[in-house]
Amino acid sequence: MGRNKLVMKKIEDSTSRQRTYSKHKDSLVKKANELAILCDTDVALLMFSPTGEVTRYSSRGSVEDVMLRIVNNPGELNRGYVYFNMPNP
């Protein structure tokens, strides 16, 4: 038996949206940390909550250091994945 598929759409109620963000934020940071440790990778995570609070995680150094590495070596973008949240039309 599997789980029901979750429909990905914006949570309209702001209180529910903030509660959901708070519940999932820590597990996302934990997964980023696990990926960094298991695969010996540089991971930078930057999130803005619905209320504007900033959450940062970096496996080595600061988030800024990892971002500067991308800015200073744009050729590295062609070797991996970069995800951007594209708005639905």
TrEMBL record:
Q: Where in the cell is it found?
A: Nucleus
The entry's keywords = DNA-binding, Nucleus, Transcription, Transcription regulation
Q: What is its main location?
A: nucleus
Q: Does the keyword Nucleus apply?
A: yes
Q: Which GO terms describe its molecular function?
A: DNA-binding transcription factor activity, RNA polymerase II-specific; protein dimerization activity; RNA polymerase II cis-regulatory region sequence-specific DNA binding
Specify whether DNA-binding is a keyword of the entry: yes
| Pfam families per record | SRF-TF
Q: Which InterPro entries match?
A: MADS-box/MEF2_TF (IPR050142), TF_MADSbox (IPR002100), TF_MADSbox_sf (IPR036879)
User: Which segments constitute the MADS-box domain?
Assistant: 1-61
In the UniProt record, which is one GO cellular component term?
A: nucleus
Q: Name one GO biological process term.
A: regulation of transcription by RNA polymerase II
Q: What is this protein called?
A: MADS-box domain-containing protein
